[in-house]
Amino acid sequence: MTGILMTQVSTPIIGQAAWLLGKIMDGIYRVMDLIGIHNLGVCIILLTIVIYTLLMPLTIKQQKFSKMSAAMNPELQKVQQKYKGKNDQASMQKMQEETQAVYQKYGVSPTGSCVQLAIQFPILMALYQVIYKIPAYVGSVRDILASAVTNITGVNGYTDILQQFITDNKMTRVQLIMDGSKATSNSVTDFLYALSPSQWKTLAETSQFAGFTDTLNSTAKEISHVQNFFGLNIADQPLTYIKAAFVGGSVLLAIVAILIPILAWATQTLSIKLMPQAAQQSGDSQQDAMMNSMKTMNMVMPLMSAVFCFTFPVGLGIYWVASAAVRSVQQLIINKHMDKIQVEDLISENMKKMEKKREKAGLPPQKITNQAHQSVKNINKIEKGSSNTDAATRAQKVEESYQKASNAKPGSITAKANMVKTFDERNKKK
Predict the structure, then answer these.
(1) Core vs surface per residue 129-153: b (16+ CB within 10 A) or e
(2) 274 vs 267, 269, 288, CA distance in Å?
(3) Helices (H), 154-237
(4) Do the beta carbons of residue 47 and residue 28 sit within 8 Å?
């Protein structure tokens, strides 16, 4: 039972990330085993907390960019309005230059949040794969099933027996992977992991497996123990418990099962509400349409996750609830942190980072300063008679943030950039 399981995701990057997360999950399980706790549901919660904690710096960076975007949007809209209806090449080029100048003024890139998303997305997708296919990644769980798999695959015609069992029990989520005419050991492992306690009992009663009934019963007892979470089997579906309640099954378990989708909806709704909200209608029809689409998606996604939770394994529901709860706590912390940060401070911080990057690239830093300074004149110009005092105040503060560089340490890059800027201004006066 060693080696790479066929059920592991093979998608580049996501596959590697899933392998690493599987190792972390296995490590969490082993640590818990040392203190006498054998519960995959708790492991899923702990893994979720660990991963989202590690991703928190990226989340903060992403929301810093969002805060900068909120400050930039009025200026970007001015540029768009200035060139509205002008489709000639010269106008389009000028619009692009002025738009870029706004971004440079605030010290950010147009693709500012894309890097964070590009890192987060494969990790979160990999986390989903690990939780959905635990035996494929967690060696400790695979070891529990190893003896049963060895015995089953030693029976002649075991593939047909298992396939018939899957059909009879309507196990729609399980699919045997074939190697020639036989199911692979890895897919048999996944099959056993997906069994409910009652299905384990039925499997042990299969006549072809009579020679190792005790092995199947002992394996069922051990795997059911680690899969148990408040009476629910994490490999089972909440809908199964709800249906069972109508034919004499436990009503209490059905209530617990219903709580999974409800909590998934509630926690995700809370997480979305705690996120910084986008500005109101901007007047730009395209942008407003995108904002409305986002609002609709924010309403629909929690509802969709609740619906999915009824037919997906309980383990995935636990993950969705845990991840949304962790994000909510993180967002409360981030919101308090972001409230203390001024846009001007972010600009100053971004400009310092940009100067360091330009230094490493061998580019002169004053080009950033000069271009940003020019953008203040061209883009943030307040027309005569305008009452937009907020924009004027922000433009002044932004300009002041650049002027802070005048107190730069002698001999530094910033100080040299100021010398060049002063020289240029004197020449212009002449």
Answers:
(1) bbbbbbbbbbbbbbebbbebbebbb
(2) 11, 9, 21
(3) 158-168, 185-193, 197-204, 213-227
(4) yes
Q: Identify the CA nearest to 226 among candidates 362, 415, 30.
A: 30
Q: Where are the domains of the chain?
A: 235-278+291-340, 342-379+391-430
Q: Identify the residue whose tokens are 């967690």.
A: 138
pLDDT value at position 310?
Answer: 92
Whether the full predicted model's pTM is greater than 0.85, yes or no, is no
d(Cα 110, Cα 65) in Å, to the nearest integer? 10
Residue-wise pLDDT for 187-229, tens only, equals 999 999 999 889 999 999 999 999 999 999 999 999 999 999 9
DSSP 11: S
Between the CA of residue 229 and those of 43, 67, 226, 419, what are the distances in Å?
11, 40, 8, 67
**Strand 178-179 to 182-183 pairing:** antiparallel
Tally of CB atoms within 10 A around 88: 9
Q: Give the span between the Cα atoms of 241 and 297, in whole angstroms.
A: 30
Written as six digits, the tokens of 113 are 């949040």
CA–CA dist 417, 429 (Å, integer): 19
Assign 320 to helix, strand or coil: helix
Record the tokens describing residue 33, joined without a space.
């085993």
